[in-house]
Amino acid sequence: MKMNVLKIALFSAISTAVVLSSCKKDDNETNPSENDTRWITLSAAIDDPSNITVGDGNAGTMIYSVSVADAKNPNVTIDAFKNGLAVKSSRTARLQASADGNYLYNIQYTGDDGGIFNKYRVYGGKDFRAEGPEVETATYVSTSPRWLKAAEGVGVAVRAAANAVEFEGTNPNFVFKQRTAKTDAITLDLNDPRITKTTSFDLALSPQEIAAGYYVSRIDVPVINKAGNKVFIGAAISKHNTTSFTISADGLPVFATDNSIKSWAKTLVLDYPSLLNSQIITSNQTRGNTNGYRSTMQYIGTDGNVYQATSGELAGTGGSKILRISSTTNNYDNSYVFSLDAALGVTNSYIETWKYVGNGIGFVIYNVGGQGGYIAKINLNDKTATKYTIPNEATLDFGQIQNITVEGDEVFIAVAPIGGDGNIYIFNRITGQMTVGAKLANEVGGQYIGTY
Amino acid sequence: MKYRLLFIILISTGCLFAQEQTGKIFGKIITSSKEPVIGATVFIKSLNKYGMTNEKGFYQFTKIPYGKYILEINSLEIELKTIEINVDAFENNIDITVSEIGNRSLKEVHVVGMTEKRKIETSGFAVNVVNTKEAASRNIQTNELLDRTVGVRVRQSGGLGSQVEYNLNGMTGRAVGIFIDGLEISTYGSSFNLNNIPPALIERIEVYKGVLPAHLSGDLLGGAINIVLKEGTAANNISTSVSYGSFNTLQTDLSANYRNAKNGFTTRLSGFYTSTDNNYEQWGRFSKFIAPDGRVTRNFRTKRFFDAYETTGIRAEAGYSNVKWADVFLLGYNFSDAYKEIQHGQTMGTPYMGRTSKTQAHVLGLNYKKRDLLIKGLDFNLNAAHSLRSTLVQDTVPWAYNWDGNIRTDLNGNPIRTLEGAQQGAPMIDDITRKITNIRSNLSYDIATGHKVSINEVFYGVDRQDKNLLNPITANGIRSFADFSKNVISFNYEAETFENKLTTNLFTKIYQQSVGSTSYKVNAGVLTQEVLKDNRIENGYGLAVSYKISPKVNLITSAEKAVRMPDDDEIFGSPERNVISNRSLKPEMSDNYNIGFRLGTFDFDKHKISFYSNVFGRNIKNRIMPQANELLNNQEIEETQFINISSAQSIGVEGELSYIYNKKLTMMFNFSKFNSLLKQKGSKYYNTQLPNEPFFTMNANVHYRIDNVLQKKSELNLFYTFGYVGSFKTVWPESENFITPTQYAQNIGTSYSFPNRKIIASLDIKNILNAEIYDNFGVQKPGRAIYLKLNYIINKF
């Protein structure tokens, strides 16, 4: 009896002590030596093990940084999964970086803190330190915003969500009227994190396109033009079959999707920095999307024009293109098109991401007909392309790739099969020479998805 | 508020019940040689009341309603004797003479009566019985009571009335069945659940882990919680209570019993009313204040501003008990109504304003029990309910709110509209109506003494209709719809052998489920109807064994191959729970094993000790789990979908130690620790703990009774409870940002019973240290709260 009382008393005392003493851990402020190293940060996506899709990257993102010398050294092994830092994000983080590699910017994607912007200073290894306030963007652009560093120091986050289909008539004789997209965009100051401008409007296509069932379903990859007075935002256009619908449980029509035809490539243009005067420009060079997938698709060329990669063209319609938006008209230059299919002699190429590295030269990561993962150096001026040969390229998958970084004349690309080890590949932007750099250690279902 | 008035009427009508007289029966049992019979049982059959003679052969019963009864007297020393008696006076002295059995030399015999709790707990199943008696007079919710039970973790997303999830040894969601008197709780709707049924209306709660007995044979894997409501008893009484405390929380309940001893007419009326503002303070990590330029202030200290809850329930039963044609024949009607303000989605990241749900249910029930139906040994039990449930979810406020309770403003000072036009998504006023039929019948036959076979059948059918009240034009047109029904048939063989030391229960179950959907499609002006039917049959089997090594040492073991069919909400979705449909869900399968023991109660002088422990294993395939915050469509709403995850395993141990000193000090400690592991081969996380599941919990409570404080014959009770939940990660990778920290909750309470035993007053202080506690990370629970309660009981009338 006495023992029991004693035990309980002791137990309560200990627990009370624990409760009272559980104060905050101090941040280990070991002042780093002057941070003049150019760090190369690698990002890696963790597979969500609770489903059967291998390599979905949905369980979060790890980051790890190394010096340029280490990144280029094939005797160095980098294991971001084991040694890296888990970026705050329930799912794949949408990371961006300053050009010098000193800062990483992230907007958390979905989850409790989806849409929260965080800025990190890079100190090498897994040492990333949060700097400045967190910024909430979810109220303006949802907990899963599409965003990029649209110019040095400026982030643009966007969102377009198709509104409910407007229809006329009564059950069951419904008639399709139109579908618009509620569109939101904000600009972020990356140097002093805060929102600097917001806009919201309903985006509609031309009356003919609306009648045919077309609507804007997603927007992404914003870039600010050289003059700094326009922001170009890539778009995906979807289409309904206006005469086919099912009737839902609450008696409303749900119109079918029509995948038999793609819309001409389109781009949303806003004035910068006011984000006013929304306007849609249309190319007549390809029927495809210009919004890419998680990574940059459009760059300001040395000539001042914007070069924009497309994807999602229907099979047999010529594959991905690179289009030009004129620096003088801020509209498509329909006299120009770069066809990756034509330049490489393949069919149904699909650009996953690319990097413009100056003087009309770019490095393109692509698949062919949905298969493989290939790297080619392209010349936008003479419309040529040279494919590199990398190991396992027929089975590589760059579907999740987010970034390619350039330091000096060298272009760094992380290459590793899903769940397999790989390497950083370094390409000289002048000579085109490829060298194999540090080894990337992988884990089951894991993927390396970016260099910064 | 209109229910408050209704409730007052209810209370006043409750008092109008006929005042029935009761009397006391007492006397002496002697042998023909005038020797007193010591330790004989005296049994009033129709009241199911037992008594025992003392060392002088005396017995006594009090509060016996006037009427005729049959007394049965039995002991090892005597021959069974039955006599008919008539209770017609306040005191009835009935001495009885019995015949001795031969010339047997008698050893000392202990007759150990088992309480219902102990009887169930030693039946072979891994089961704990929670008594509600103490909680009934205190400011304790049924959910809190359950949360202190070994192996049970109640995870509530917020304050009173908010959504609750039950975790039994690592099994969760719909793998765990919740029953009211053996019928699925969904029959009663979300307006009548563990959130609002006060402990005072509950007789006991049975918590089965893993293997389930036939009378609860649903398609469940993780076990079941069965709430046994108080039945109409012979004792006529009225009891009522009112509680008021923090966050403007008012709770009242009432129950009244009446039985006519002459014709067996029995009626019972009970009801409750609860309302709360839930405006408690929060300051956790996800409590954010956001400036117009987006800058975030975390750990923002604020009060919840749209979280009120109001609920009313009324239950009326009438029928006959202990009559010739039925042991029990009761018709019941149950009405319940709940209104809930929804402060946020699955986490408290973004506050909502104006999103509400209103639920209502009307349930008609029938309960019929008859022993020895037609032939001796054939028992029949039917429990059926038909309910009409409705859920109205409304969300039309277009403004985005900040946690300070104000509308957010943009950089130009203008109010910000939400992205989708309402708080959680697009504006909606959805009315979902469900008609549910739930029938459970059991037929059992004693083939020989100690051997019983039974067949148990459960039918559950749902007919659901959705209405979008924002689009009334569609109200009368064609619409797609779904229907759902399931049957579980189980066959049991129960045996008690080896002088009743070994109890075995062998069973097999057949699960049948039909899911149908009818949809309409228009293509170029042509209307076609598409009917989809999905019919699935699965079967399972199991065995439960209990072995009594000695009266105080019981070994308990059970094993089952269990099946759980996906539920209608999991297949078709449920907007009020933020769940969207997944029609390709597969049934979940589990092999369950339990092995455990119960020791005690051992008496040493004034000390009483008992101990219970159970080791369990679950092997689960196609586990059905909610997938939180997934990107499922362009709208990207905070919604959940139920998915199958391939494989998981859970192995663990739980234990409970109780100690009583001199009937004054009661101490209890329990713990539960398990590993719920992912078993998907090839995954990096193979054999690691599934995220977002608390896997280590401990509870301790101390209760001390002091008699004769201030007044003679009064009773003062002091309580202290301590709860511990070990920290657990909420996502797969190790990340300090996604860990639910260790939780400590401490509560104290006191109750005072006045000498007349009619009034009990109690005071409870919850979360005394005002700790930051979470059940689901991202939703902070209330801090320190104080409640006062008064109970009033009229026993004799």
TrEMBL record, chain A:
Keywords: Signal. It comes from Pedobacter cryophilus. This is DUF4374 domain-containing protein. It comes from the Bacteria. Residues 1-17 form the signal peptide.
UniProtKB/TrEMBL annotation, chain B:
InterPro entries: Beta-barrel_TonB_sf, Carb-bd-like_fold, Plug_dom, Plug_dom_sf, TonB-dep_rcpt-like. One of its GO terms (cellular component) is cell outer membrane. Gene3D superfamilies: Carboxypeptidase-like, regulatory domain, TonB-dependent receptor, beta-barrel domain, TonB-dependent receptor, plug domain. Residues 1-18 form the signal peptide. It is a multi-pass membrane protein. Residues 122-223 form the TonB-dependent receptor plug domain. One of its GO terms (molecular function) is siderophore uptake transmembrane transporter activity. One of its GO terms (biological process) is siderophore transmembrane transport. It is found in: Cell outer membrane. Keywords: Cell outer membrane, Membrane, Receptor, Signal, Transmembrane, Transmembrane beta strand, Transport. Its main location: membrane. Belongs to the TonB-dependent receptor family. This is TonB-dependent receptor. It comes from Pedobacter cryophilus. The lineage of its organism: Bacteria, Pseudomonadati, Bacteroidota, Sphingobacteriia, Sphingobacteriales.
